[in-house]
Amino acid sequence: MKLTSLLTYLFVATAALAAPVDFVRDVRPIFEKNCYDCHGEKKQKGGLRLDMKTAALKGGDNEGPNIIPGKAKESSLIHLITSTDEDEVMPPKGERLAAAQIATLRAWINEGAMWPDGVDVVKLKDKRDHWSFKPINAPTARPTIDSFIDTKLFEQGLHRSPPADPVSWLRRVTFDLTGLPPELEDVEAFLKKLDHAAVVERLLSSPRYGERWAQHWLDVVRFADTHGFEVNTERPNAWPYRDYVIRAFNKDTPYDRFIKEQIVGDTLGEDAATGFLVTASVLLPGQIGKDEPSKRLARQDSLDEMVNNIGQTFLGLSIGCARCHDHKFDPITAKDYYAMQAFVAGVEYEDRELRTPEAIAARARVIQIKNQVAALDKQLSRFVPLAKSGVKRSMINARENVDRFAPMTTKRVRFSIRETNNLEPCIDELEVFSTAGENIALNAAVTVSGENVTADRHKMRFVNDGNYGNSRSWMSNETGKGWVMIEFEQENEIDRIIWGRDRQGKFKDRLATSYVIEIADASGAWKIVADSDDRERYDASKSPQLGFVTKGLLQDEAAAAGQLLTQKRELEREISNLDAAQKVFAGIFRKPDEIHLLNRGDPEQPKEEVTPAVLSALGNVKLDKQTPEQQRRAVLAGWIASPQNPLTARVMVNRIWQGHFGTGLVQTPSDFGNNGIKPTHPELLDWLATEFIRSGWSVKHMHRLIVLSETYRQRSDGELESWSVGNGQPAFHYSTTPAPHEIDSDVRLLWRFPSRRLEAEAIRDSMLAISGQLNLKMYGRGYDLFDKRGGLAGFNPVETSTPENQRRMIYAHKVRREPEAVFGAFDCPDAGQSTASRRASTTPIQALNLFNSRFTLDQSTAFAVRVKKESGDDIAQQIQRAYQLVLTREPTAEEQNDAMPIIKKHGLTVLCRALFNSNEFLFQP
Amino acid sequence: MKHHAEHLSITGRALLDRRQFLSNSATALGSIALTNLLGLDGLLAAENHGPLIDPARPYAPRQSHFPGKAKNVIVIFCAGAVSQLETWDYKPELIKWDGRPLPGGPAVTFQGPAGNLARPQYEFRQRGKTGKWVSDMIPHLAELTDDIAFVHSLTSKSNTHGPAENFLSTGFVLDGFPSLGSWVTYALGSESQELPSYVAIPDPRGVPQNGANNWGPGFLPAAFQGTTMSSKNPVRHLAATGVPRDADQAARSLLQKMNARHLAAHPGDSKLAARIASYELAARMQLSVPEINDLSTEPMHILKSYGADDTQNPDKAAFAKNCILARRLIEKGVRFVQLFNGAYASGGKLNWDGHSALKEQYDVHSRILDQPAAALIRDLKQRGLLQDTLVVWCTEFGRMPFFQKGAKGRDHNPDGFTCWMTGAGVKPGVSHGVTDDLGQKAIEHIHPLYHFNATILHLLGLDFEKLSFEHNGIQRRLTNVEGKVIREVLA
């Protein structure tokens, strides 16, 4: 330090020490110049702001105060401005604080950090002072939707457009409510009477309505049929929740009940509904680290997803923001966040057994059938050549192998693998049969050489748990070897072992190609009863004969065995169908975890324990620690599904509005907080919310109100009319009178109907409907879009059309994150995060997919066949029919002329393909 | 509503003049500035965040926040977590401690009980002018160290592949957030209008863990999704299989007529115009994509230098072809190329997840990676492309200094690992950040991957705090609420 600067330093320091530091005169200018950029009104890095007394003395997020009055040395503020570590010094960029300034701050703190009240220029905004947190304003008069819309238009010098022609309205409302185009008979019927209300009733009572609107809901709750993350394993029992949502919309389940069912449906006879709680991606036990911090973090992440889902979906709030620190914009503290977690702290992501009468009956039936299968096996066993009898036995196959030997009495059986076709061996169900024909290995004590558990699959106990399939098989932890030993409670006489790699026949890797089966005699010594040495040599190129083999049997023996085998396969098929009908991925409920407030959201830094409580700014419902699991969820559901909750009804009517107009009155449908966009028509929103509650939370009632309004009935190309004068020639007078387009280019005020592109599902479903291929089968297990239903990446699309995959797209088995090969590009949500509103982007990939895919070509061909069948050989009539079916209108003479020569030369399919790609088809009128 | 009117004036009143609009629409759609934003009507404009995007030309080049040194990016993504200890982070202490337990070390790590410390499984030697210690596992890449900036002190938020690859690719451990490439192409568009702006090239052995989430658009418009293609599998639906050429052309011209008439009846509807333009773009892609995939035009010495001629090692040859494809895409102006090395979880057999037999498996993997990747960088440099192309080498986390109990491999380690970059804007020959003597934890200049991603954006002229997108009430960024540019690696 040079002498002069040293002197300056001493001088200033002394001066600073001499007179008491004045906050306004001495301190605030330093903060203002050096700190406000990051710690002021606009930004609060690390949660710290220094322009306001209360906030500044509180300190940053989870750090505690940075300013400790009287103790400059202990105040992190001083530490940070004096630090020599480039990574932590403040300010991080630009000039460092001058020595004099540091001295001033030090002195100010040591003198007690006096910060007079009332000197702050800015005021902390009360985050609770926000329209959506206030009670719904019920208007006293009985206005209509149109009156609200007109008021706002009038204010801007605008007016509604004239009504659309009846057919356009019919197309619009049919797509909106059912996701499909109108049938020609419906057009005719409507044009005769022009009874709009009748059309709406017909559409609302059509099962197609629920299929359409359930999709909107599933977008929001990010439903999928796989677990997500790296392994993305199939979630085979998720679909009953999807079916539940479809049914609920079709039944018009009152929305308050719909909420309750999804949170606590286990008390309301709607088991599948709680699928809502566990729709998110989740790490399965095998994917989570064995170390405790990994387990704690995974649990926190899975609880977080539940809280997010509840907050976004029902309340339109991003509660999840408060996981690490108090919400930046909304009155949600970190403590509020963890108190919300406590409501669902007993929910686990797992399958739950359904308790419907059907499911109970199915379970009983499975037991019955299994006994029948056992009896059949016993009969079949006499046709299997004995091991070690000198007869060459059949080649090992991946599905099922039988080893029969002379009856032996033993307590222990050991199956050792000596070689595999590749990797670590897998055994799917090792069954040991007593001479009485009973599988005595089932759930007996088991020991293995080692296990290789990934993603909750391949556990040791799966080897004899009675469940078939790869995910319920045991895997050794060594390449090419491993052993399993089963021990019975007492000695048993046995004569048969059945085992496989995958009893469902899907997997052929990891197959034990060389093995030995031993039993322990009375002395405990092992004795070989069967091995692979007398089987035909394993050869992967030969197609294995599945299971039981009749080769080498006498003719009548083979016939008898074949018959038994057929019976057995049928029973097994029935078992797998019945198994699927008994479970739903809707969470299991157990004793709730103890929930703590976590410092910066870190599970390794727990603070005080937190009990269930609703958001403190919105209510005072609190539960104590002893509250049982189910009651916690019931209380939460009751608080959300209450007419007094200012958010619940508003959020839902806004979603319904968005479903009809493309954009909600609140443009941010899952954010009604301070950071959301304010409603364009607040009074209308509140009126709709009031009407919603008054109608008994009837969603269908809201549809009626909206689609029968004149606002909804307007033309979509409204500007033509608005701009026309006199002779019908357009007049361009926007230089003096602004055109509607100029005043409201986004049509948020609804001076015309805002047309929009159909969503992926509506396009696909409509193409199938038009081509005549749509399979209207409802409900049940989803059809395959890919060559597999889950698992590690690498999904190849199924391109061949089948009746099953020509069902509506909501019935597709939804693989999380994997876009459907043709329609995924049309902004289909990936079910990673919630999709509250669909984007409608335009990309060349969409064009390639829709123009060139096998799907489009197949449907164009099928469509052409349909048209010819319905309209005969006359090309003009074919063109007419095609236009009617795709666009619900007649072709013009010009269009006839365009299409005619092309069809003559290249066939009708060309026209069909073009129509499916046309803007007129893809956009709602 | 006022801002909308203003917004309109920016994009030109030409749109309001329907006579002009109609006369343009048939011929030169691409030249008209359109008002609405690619499925975001109003939202972006209202909030004034993010770039303005012309829906008719979603891939049009756009201004960066400030002049960036890099124009394009190639990310070499090594799936499965490459061990820093066998590659770039030389730890002589570990040789001394070989076979001894780590005092005070964890008893249990991700996959189970910890075993003894294990020396690097390859010999290390000093390379180039900087004398950087690099292992013999990657002899070709090792020759390039004078041009590389290493960050040895990275950390991840997860020790599990799925969430950690999400974190590396999207900045979040959860599923469903936009990938780095999506953010970049959303911000900058592309120099090429005939190819997708963002291409993901999966490893010939299979797609990486987490698959499409590594190149997914999350909640960004689908236009910014990575398009997958490789030397083995071209883009899907490039042509209508089985349709004669003239019938195909007839369908196309019929469609054009239909759409032109429909547009005339709906003047000023930019969404309709955008769709028409998308078919024109698609038609161009139909020609340019097969061309880019046709490596027969590459001279033999190039194929050889990448190892694309290696008949003994088909996986290497296929990866080499992917590397050549990456270069060709960059040459054509594609903004972002993600080149995957390593496939899905397979006990370390198909990717870098060396839990049980690390040396044996890395011998295989390194032969596939090394020569082709090194040749790619040399080739880019030789053609002058490295001046405005950033090449990033990354992996989701590192590995432990000890073996797993009873195995010859290392478990997951998110607390200190190495990634590197080279090319445009990168300071050559730097090693930044330090792990402890055994290479277990970053101890100096600790950088969560947020910083690494922020640095990539910075090199492209993008401010990681400004590049954001509203989703469900939150202004989302690639680096969440974190981030910091690692200035030490900037030229």
Radius of gyration of chain A: 35 Å
Task: Assign a percent range to the helix content of chain B.
Answer: 25-40%
Overall mean pLDDT of chain B: 87
* Range of helix content of chain A: 25-40%
Low-confidence stretches of chain A: 720-736
Shape of chain B: globular
Query: What sort of overall outline of chain A do the alpha carbons produce when their principal axes are compared?
Result: globular
| Number of distinct beta strands of chain B | 19
Distance from first to last alpha carbon of chain B:
45 Å
Kindly, what is the distance between the CA atoms of the first and last residues of chain A, rounded to a whole number of angstroms?
77 Å
| Number of separate helices of chain A | 31
* Largest sheet, strands/sense/barrel of chain B: 9 strands, mixed
Number of strands of chain A: 14
- CATH topology description of the largest domain in chain B: Alkaline Phosphatase, subunit A
Question: What is the fold's blueprint, element by element?
Answer:
The complex is a heterodimer of chains A (925) and B (491).
Chain A: H1 3-18, H2 23-34, H3 36-39, H4 53-58, H5 76-82, H6 99-110, H7 145-155, H8 166-178, H9 184-193, H10 196-204, H11 207-220, H12 239-251, H13 255-264, H14 292-315, H15 334-343, E1 347-348, E2 351-353, H16 357-381, E3 401-420, E4 426-427, E5 431-434, E6 445-448, E7 474-475, E8 482-499, E9 512-520, E10 526-531, H17 555-580, E11 583-585, E12 588-589, E13 595-598, E14 606-610, H18 629-640, H19 648-661, H20 682-694, H21 699-707, H22 710-713, H23 719-723, H24 740-743, H25 760-771, H26 844-852, H27 854-871, H28 875-887, H29 893-906, H30 909-917, H31 919-922
Helix pairs in contact in A: 1-6, 2-6, 8-10, 11-12, 13-18, 16-17, 19-20, 19-21, 25-27, 26-27, 27-28, 27-30, 28-29, 28-30
Chain B: H1 2-11, H2 18-25, H3 43-47, E1 72-78, H4 92-96, E2 108-109, E3 112-117, E4 124-127, E5 132-135, H5 139-142, E6 148-155, H6 161-170, H7 180-188, E7 198-201, E8 227-228, H8 245-265, H9 270-293, H10 300-306, H11 314-331, E9 336-341, H12 358-382, E10 389-395, E11 398-404, E12 410-413, E13 417-423, E14 430-432, E15 434-435, E16 442-444, E17 447-448, H13 449-459, E18 468-471, E19 474-477
Parallel strand pairs in B: 1-9, 1-10, 6-14, 6-17, 7-8, 7-9
Antiparallel strand pairs in B: 2-3, 3-11, 4-5, 6-13, 10-13, 11-12, 15-16, 18-19
Helix pairs in contact in B: 11-12
